[in-house]
UniProtKB/TrEMBL annotation:
Name of protein: 3'-5' exonuclease DinG
Cofactor(s) needed for function: [4Fe-4S] cluster
Enzyme Commission code(s) on record: 3.1.-.-
Function: 3'-5' exonuclease.
Motif (DEAH box): 454-457
Gene name linked to the record: dinG
Positions of ATP binding: A281, G282, T283, G284, I285, G286, K287, S288
Family: Belongs to the helicase family. DinG subfamily. Type 2 sub-subfamily.
Molecular-function GO terms, alphabetical: 3'-5' exonuclease activity; 5'-3' DNA helicase activity; ATP binding; DNA binding; DNA-directed DNA polymerase activity; hydrolase activity, acting on acid anhydrides, in phosphorus-containing anhydrides
Record's keyword terms, sorted: ATP-binding, Exonuclease, Helicase, Hydrolase, Nuclease, Nucleotide-binding
GO biological process terms, semicolon-separated: DNA replication
Organism, as annotated: Parageobacillus toebii NBRC 107807
Length: 921
């Protein structure tokens, strides 16, 4: 029994066996003693239709199952193979429910043995895997996967994955396996006996554990020190010598691109001559290597560090995992590269150990503990962004990461990252941390005077968020729930228990803390109800969401006064809670307890500190008045009565950028695929306050031949947006998308500027029977991140992906993965957006034109990003449809068209355009 595993995979007509969905194919692979010993596979006649999208996904047609046996005919054989075995599957609950239903229909007893889910086991064993889809894990482990979504092939791959997972479990240190065994009863898989066997084997073999260090009962990977600084200079280690060479790179499948070499030269020139530069690099240039190579040479030759800042943590990771290995293969000297992020990105070991000791039965928490235990045996950085944790688990991250005040204990991951950065030629960071560093009283990044800012068009937006403030009801409620009342299981009750265990008498303090928390829970609830009501009464909700801009000195009336009064009272309660907490903290210092106990009690102290901070921020948002700051309230019209948030952002940041970023540094190179509007850098120069610095400005066009690879199509038979209702326009868009889908028989990305129009269009498309051959994936309608939805989209041959904001850029779908992009409306920000409204007023007050100085440039840059989704490689071919006739009818349409690369533009009826497209494709 202990060593027999039956790995199963099924293909079915749908997802719900109780509603009549049936198995159409079954694959089984038997593993004994770590080896595959038997296989079984068969198609089954489901005695019902197979939906078109299932046929598309699995390549199993109705003809293939027409003469196949029914499941009942093979049921006894299947049940017999499962005797005395573990039932193993990738997402076991799905396969098991179908099998149980089929066994029941065949008159056989249900399977009652142990089960293992390879998705869950992979999450634990490979906590940093990018994806837990079977195909992605197979690719990571170099397992051939010839026919995805065919049960026999999937079962074979799952079996090989399972063997790899078992081998990886056996390599874990004993202490980690013992922790996993203790946690395993709360997992979905029956791992307890399996782990018990592995632990017994391990204890008998006395395995070597020299590659780990042990800290307070957990195993950590032994850190590898960074290579020492080499004093000797390599004779060819100069950019001049490199650039004088044959203009090729020693990389597999490298395609020489003149634009890439032109950009390298520009970047090196800017760094060497201490100038700031703006470089717009078209798609396909190979921008990352074009700035990394000259940066590396400059840093090595001059012994001056170069900092590289990216927009997101994902881009930071991409540079580290994909581009830096290439860079090290290219440069003729040993290169040291480090990554540095904000403190809250790193795990606090003491907090984790306290968390591990606490008893939790919540599934997300238990799985997170298992992942962290394994990850600590693999990570050198302690950077939590390496982890692929569930969204439920991420709610607990604030309890585990380092605080700004946190010294990190003996193994301080943030301090180690800073040490690596001090020794590096190149330091990679992100825009948010860069701003934190620029504004901190003591710098967090090591000394530097030269910098590259990638995805520079996002820097102002990141700075607006960074200098802005935000408080929402959910955050306050979360902290108050974490603290809890004295009779609950929060951090307050845990501290009380610790005091009782040490016979310290502080009951009065605890009683007062409990009363204050209770009052705060009630009054914060009431305050956010009042804030929501106040906003909704003053501003009609667009698409169910209200955004009311307020100016503290101009607001008046009884409601406003009552809100302020309640806020003052809440602030008073928090001040009292802080005082009582200080009294409790003195017990620790007087008894010199800080060093001898776990981090557990500190969670209460940090919770109170966080609450104090957040209420101070709310007070500042509603009380202080700065004409250069815009403030607004956001509330859902149909949401919970207190589901409300208050925001502020600065209106203008050009002076900040000029004085704090560009003036102190010798050379900053800003690069992106979208920096110009109508061929000019003027807009970006004004936003960043760069006018007085006379930066180098250069556009390097894409190497792609847009004339031959792309067409821009504008249907002339669509109504002007302003002439019809949103519902009518959604019906027209749905009809247009359906017609394109019917004709191209490929994949399509449809970009919206509002969720409301997206949802209405998706609903209209679902009404149409002719769209059955297409899989529709719509952001906000289906749950999941942009990455998750894009992955789902990639699985099908015929699919339509509806997306808003974060689909306009960063989505990479080369080749057959995309043949048409539809831009539903020109991407102007809504005029009632509080930030746009305030910036427009500021421009108007200075005698400017907000439309031409703000709204239009922003829309054009966004439009270029959307257009850029279509052509990602030299082999791509397709069309961009723009359903907004303003592109040709409005006087400002030329600004959009002039910002695109040279390509063929057609304007005609949709039917005529589709005839042209069919011939061309």
């Amino acid at each position: 029994m202990k060593d027999r595993f039956v790995i199963i995979d099924l293909e079915t007509t749908g997802n719900v066996p109780k509603k009549g969905d049936r198995i159409i194919q079954l694959g089984m692979v038997v593993i004994e003693n770590g080896q595959i010993v038997d296989r079984f596979s068969s198609f089954f006649n489901p005695e019902r239709d197979i939906p078109p999208f299932v046929q598309q996904l699995t390549n199993i047609t109705e003809q293939m199952v027409a003469d196949a046996p029914s499941f009942a005919e093979e049921a006894a054989k299947v049940a017999d193979m499962l005797q005395q075995s573990y039932f193993v599957a990738h997402n076991v609950s799905f396969d098991l429910q179908f099998l149980q239903e089929e066994l029941h229909m065949a008159g056989l007893p249900p399977f009652s043995g142990p089960t293992i889910d390879t998705v869950e086991l992979a999450r634990i064993v490979f906590p940093t895997a990018e994806s837990y889809k079977l195909g992605d894990l197979a690719k990571q482990l170099h397992i051939d996967h010839d026919q995805p979504h065919q049960a026999d092939s999937d079962a074979e791959v799952t079996a090989k994955l399972f063997i790899a997972l078992l081998n990886r479990l056996r390599q874990l240190p004993l202490i980690t396996l013992q922790h996993l065994k203790r946690l395993s009863p709360y997992l979905k898989s029956d791992l307890y006996p399996l782990l018990d066997n592995i632990i017994m084997e391990k204890m008998a073999s006395l395995a070597d554990e020299k590659s780990y260090i042990f800290y307070r009962g957990i195993a950590l990977k032994k850190p590898v020190s960074m290579q020492r600084k080499e004093e000797d200079h390599h004779k060819d280690a100069s950019f001049a010598a490199f650039f004088a060479g044959p203009h090729t790179l020693p990389l597999d499948h490298y395609e020489r691109r003149d634009g890439q070499w032109e950009m390298m030269k520009l970047v090196y020139e800017a760094l060497e001559t201490s100038q700031h530069a703006l470089i717009e690099a078209g798609t396909g240039i190979g921008k990352s290597l074009a700035y990394l190579i000259p940066s590396a040479f400059f840093a090595y030759e001059q012994q001056k560090r170069v900092v590289i800042s990216t927009h997101t943590l994902q881009l930071q990771q991409q540079l580290l995992e994909r581009d830096i290995p290439f860079l090290k293969a290219v440069v003729p000297f040993p290169l040291r590269v480090a990554v540095l992020k904000g403190k809250r990105n790193y795990l606090s070991l003491d907090k984790f150990i306290a968390f591990l000791q606490e008893h939790h039965q919540n599934y997300d928490v238990v799985l997170l503990k298992c992942q962290l235990l394994v990850w600590l045996t693999q990570t050198e950085t302690g950077d939590m962004d390496e982890l692929n944790a569930s969204s439920g688990a991420r709610l607990f991250w604030p309890l585990l990461v380092m605080d700004e005040e946190d010294n990190g204990g003996k193994y301080n991951f943030f301090w180690r990252a800073k040490q690596r950065a001090e020794e590096a030629h190149i330091v990679i960071t992100n825009h948010a941390f860069l701003l934190h560093d620029v504004t901190a009283s003591t710098p967090l990044l090591p000394d530097y005077e030269h910098m590259i800012i990638d995805e520079a068009h996002h820097l102002e937006e990141v700075a607006s968020h960074y200098f802005g403030q935000q408080v929402d009801y959910v955050s306050i409620r979360l902290i108050l729930t974490r603290i809890g009342k004295v009779n609950e299981n929060g951090s307050l009750a845990k501290l009380m228990k610790l005091f009782a265990g040490r016979h310290w008498n502080a009951d009065n303090h605890f009683l007062r803390c409990g009363q204050l928390v209770e009052e705060l829970q009630f009054e914060c609830d009431e305050l956010f109800r009042m804030i929501r009501r106040y906003a909704l009464e003053r501003k009609s909700a667009e698409s169910g969401r209200c955004r009311y801009r307020f100016e503290p000195q101009k607001e008046s009336g009884r409601q406003w006064s009552a809100m302020k009064e309640l806020l003052w009272r809440i602030r008073g309660h928090v001040a009292n809670l802080v005082d009582e907490t200080k009294q409790l903290q003195t017990f620790f210092s007087e008894n010199n307890m800080e060093s001898s106990i776990s981090a557990q009690p500190y969670s209460y102290f940090s919770d109170v500190s966080s609450l104090n901070q957040i209420i101070d921020t709310l007070y500042d948002l509603i009380e202080s008045d700065d004409p250069m700051v815009v403030r607004w309230i956001e509330a859902e019209e149909k949401g919970a009565a207190n589901a409300t948030a208050v925001y502020s952002q600065p209106i203008q940041l050009d002076e900040f950028f000029a004085e704090r970023l560009f003036m102190p540094k010798k050379s900053i190179v800003l690069t992106s695929a979208t920096l110009t509007m109508n061929g000019s850098f003027a807009y970006i120069i004004s936003r960043f306050g760069l006018s007085d610095f006379y930066p180098i400005c250069q556009t390097i066009p894409s190497p792609f031949s847009y004339k031959e690879q792309a067409m821009l199509m504008i249907p002339s038979d669509f109504p002007p947006i302003s002439s019809v209702s949103l519902e009518e326009y959604a019906a027209v868009v749905a009809e247009g998308v359906s017609q394109i889908a019917e004709r191209i028989k490929g994949k399509m990305l449809v970009l919206f500027t509002s969720y409301e129009l997206l949802k209405l269009t998706a609903a209209a498309m679902k009404m149409e029977e002719r769209n059955e051959d297409y899989v529709l994936i719509a952001q906000g309608v289906q749950s999941g991140s942009a990455t998750k939805l894009t992955r789902a989209f990639q699985q099908f041959d015929q699919a339509i992906l509806f997306g808003t904001s974060n689909f306009w850029e960063g989505v990479d779908l080369p080749g057959d993965e995309l043949s048409v992009v539809v831009i539903v409306r020109l991407p102007f920000a809504p005029p009632d957006d509080p930030l746009i409204e305030a910036k427009s007023e500021y421009i108007r007050a200075k005698g400017g034109n907000p439309f031409y100085e703000l709204s239009l440039p922003e829309a054009v840059l966004r439009f270029k990003q959307g257009f850029g989704r279509l052509i990602r490689t030299k082999k791509d071919k397709g069309a961009v449809f723009v359903f907004d006739r303003r592109l040709t009818s409005a006087s400002y349409g030329k600004y959009f068209l002039n910002s695109l690369p040279s390509l063929t533009i057609y304007e005609a009826s949709l039917d005529q355009l589709l005839q042209k497209l069919e011939k061309w494709l």
